[in-house]
């Protein structure tokens, strides 16, 4: 980026940061609900707070069916969405603008065609959905589950999950391989991903308890999204259970959350 463009951008960001500064009380209340962010070093929290302001400036929140998106709700989404791109930059999310918030999970009717050409309709309950070009959909009831304090058996974080899909989709394919620099990197990523995915599916089939939700066995792109949840929410458990997947994600996100 040319120097003049960089300084223009810096000036614009400075104005946004001033206009969109997050009040202390709101920030503290938000972080108190998110222990995996509260555990981060102060320096990272400062950068996260700054990035959340820029995120709130660039994205457009809307409430579906009368749901009211308060400042606290928008901030809770923003800060969790920014965590995965803390070292990658907010530009990773430039492909879309709209975020549609529902009060609760959304029931979507899906159709599948079987081998005989018969169409089967079924209902699917969605806590969130990411699609190329947006908008991104989230259910608030799933963003901050009421029983958060009850130490869930598996890592669950719908915001990180859906934004991991956004990162995966940047190369136009939902395949668990995010946008990487070269074909060689893609191949290497695919090899580790599939080996770890197969290992995980075996554990699920054998009925073992897993750090990752069994939903991750659905497909490699879901495995990437669910692994990303665990990477940020319960990093030590993921590192212990699937060390190669942890290392892969650590190299991509340029973070080592098991340290905190
Ligand atoms: Zn998913």
Description:
There is one protein chain. The protein is α/β, with parallel strands linked by helices and 260 residues long. It has one domain (3-259): Collagenase (Catalytic Domain) (3-Layer(aba) Sandwich), CATH 3.40.390. Helix content is 50%, strand content 12%. It is built from eleven helices and six strands. It has helices at residues 3-19, 24-32, 35-38, 42-58, 71-82, 140-143, 158-168, 183-205, 220-233, 235-241, 243-253; strands at 60-63, 98-102, 106-113, 119-126, 128-129, 136-139. The protein has a four-stranded mixed beta sheet with strand order 1-2-6-5. Strands 3-4 form a two-stranded antiparallel ribbon. Strand 3 (106-113) and strand 4 (119-126) form a beta hairpin. Helix 2 (24-32) crosses helix 5 and helix 10 packs across helix 11 (243-253). The longest helix is centred in the last third of the chain and has 23 residues, at 183-205. The radius of gyration is 19 Å and the shape is globular. The mean pLDDT is 93. Zinc ion (ZN) is lined by residues 161, 165, 222, 225.
